[in-house]
Amino acid sequence: MTTDWAQERILVFAPHPDDETLGCGGLLSKAKRAGAEVLVQFITVGDTADESAKGYSTAEERYAEIKKVSDHFRWDDWNMALPGDHFHLRLDTVAQVDLTQIIERESPISIARAQPTVVLAPHGSSYNQDHRAVARAVHTALRPSNTAVRHHPRLVLSYEEAADQWRTDPVASPSLIVELEEDDLDAKVEGMGLYGSQAHEHPHTRSEPTLRSLAVLRGMQAGVALGEGFHVARCLA
User: Fold this and answer.
1) What average pLDDT score do residues 104-131 get?
2) Can you cite a GO biological process for this protein (predicted)?
3) Do the Cβ atoms of 135 and 126 come closer than 8 Å?
4) How does pLDDT run across 141-182, given as a tens digit for each residue?
5) Can you tell me the distance from the alpha carbon of 192 to that of 89, in angstroms, rounded to the nearest whole number?
6) b/e per residue, 120-143, with b = 16+ CB within 10 A?
7) How far is Cα 174 from Cα 131, in angstroms, rounded to an integer?
8) Residue ranges of domains in the chain, CATH in brackets
9) Distances (CA, A) of 25 to 117, 144, 148, 163
10) In what order do the strands lie in the sheet with 155-159?
């Protein structure tokens, strides 16, 4: 499968700021460098416990990080759907129909409004309740239908994060590997570094060695030097 990323409009659903970089930062770098349009829909953010000197980061600090990362990757637009502590790390308490409506048509960069050709979303096997809630809602929003009635992106992928390997149910290896250049991996690592409140030293699932090691592993599985792995939900050739 060969994709001309220059022709694509990519919409990424990230439960929290940094998930898009951890899961598909290399692909976003590669696609944007080729000329793709990239939109990122964050779902929620709030005050977050971290390992900084004060022990937490505020939502305002997280917004500042998003702006730095957006400039770094040159995203065309981004949006935050449900800001605040009422939703952050509590998306499993939001009715799935409400979350699906935001993703499908209510957000300024919803599927119906943005009409992406490619959608990227978290994998439903994550231990994180917010990730699972977003994965289910995106899956529902992209349910099969008449294309004259509902927009159908040509390519729908679930991205992986190293932390997702912590699970009890077996999950197949990624079914699609996107080859990365060294510059794409460097852009991913640098982007994660701009999320200063969320980056960690090794050994940690969000450390630089972890990101580089996973890229080497996925690349090796496809016979190339570096790659990012994805699970295919839809691919219209």
Assistant:
1) 97
2) glycoside metabolic process
3) yes
4) 999 998 888 999 999 999 999 998 898 888 999 999 999 999
5) 20
6) bbbbbbbebebbbbbbbbbbebbe
7) 17
8) 7-235 (3.40.50.10320)
9) 18, 28, 32, 15
10) 77-80, 37-42, 9-14, 118-122, 155-159, 227-235, 176-179
Fill in the amino acid letter for 66: I
130 or 199, greater pLDDT: 130
Cα→Cα distances 96→81, 135, 144, 175, 205, Å = 14, 10, 18, 27, 28
SS3 percent helix, strand, coil of the chain, rounded to 5, is 40, 20, 40
Pairing of strands 227-235, 155-159: antiparallel
Tokens coding 234:
């839809």
Predicted TM-score (pTM) of this structure = 0.95
> Which residue type, as a one-letter code, is found at position 111?
I
